TrEMBL record:
Pfam families named in the record: DUF418 (PF04235)
Ranges for domain DUF418: 223-383
Organism: Qipengyuania mesophila
Domain of life: Bacteria
Keywords associated with the record: Membrane, Transmembrane, Transmembrane helix
Protein name: DUF418 domain-containing protein
Amino acid sequence: MGILFANIIAFGQPMTAYMYPAAFTVPHSVAEDWMWVAQLVLVDGKMRGLFTLLFGAGMYLFLEKAWARGQGIWLQVQRLLWLGLFGLVHFFFVWRGDILFLYACAGTAALLFVGLPRLHQLVLGVLGYIGGALLYAGFVGFLPLVADGDLGQRPAYSQMATDLEADKQANLADGRFETELIAGGDYHEWVAHNLAAHGGDLVFNLLMSWFETLPLMLIGMAAYRYGLFDGRLDPRRQRFWGWTLFLAGTALTAPVALWAKASGLTYYGTLAAVVGWSMLPRGLAILGLVTLLSAWGQHARGSLVARIAAAGRAAFTNYLGTSVLMLLLFHGWAGGLFGRLGRTELYLVALATCALMLLWSKPWLDRFRFGPLEWLWRCLTYRRPFPLRR
């Protein structure tokens, strides 16, 4: 549900609008500029980070059960292969913000480290994440100094400034072209455009994400093995460290977001804020959130908690189902709302969709053993049908 609040902008507006408010096809108000700040501080990257940590923990849990049955690591490889195929279909035919293909590739790489002691997994994950944060800051963090500042006026950087402006205009033009295709209802041409113009994005995403996705998966594996999710840790210390990490990460992200707003939310300023400078404090917030939520989840009760748990058990269906629902809502051949809603309205769409997840997931799982896509994924992984009804 949190990931939807991050992704909803790129569902209903051009992909470039995710970071750059000026790419919206409708006016972006001052209040919505502050919403951009709040999203960077509270949401961006953190929900994906939680998803990635839990994916790593889930991989190790799956392997434990496979080992107990005398099965090996190749069952997990087969499971990830199917996930990657789901991701490719999602990327090219439903929504280009897919993360499943990346998870399949990074998860396969994580299997190389699955036999390490949990401390080694944790240290490798933390060092890899810090290295990635430094790498992203080095690649992206100084770009606004060239594109928006005086540095780009110097002869040594003038060509770089020209190239950055050309890249910016090319990305914005691609967003305008996609808007015409989607709003005009030309689905086949939109798919053809994805295949021709954005197939290489998959490779770029893989290259740029190894220093975030893979380390977080390793941290998730180690956290599971240390007992973060099953009550083996001291609850008082767990809450203390959870709040400390979360508040520290949030406090360190806020100046980055405020700087980007004070600088006018420029194209390269927002890129540097989201990708370059917030990754390290975001990591602290992710660890704090997963620590707090796991402590709360072990003792939480009530009907809302039961519905949240059910939505989580059907996370695969909810993730892909949301993309299909947004396709039907926004594309011109269906609902036709693409490019018509501002940030405020898009958040309301996300809120309504989260309510829908909570409404359907529990009644379904009261009657069936798995979510629809969870069941299909399981049957494909084990190459045999499983009973669906309880």
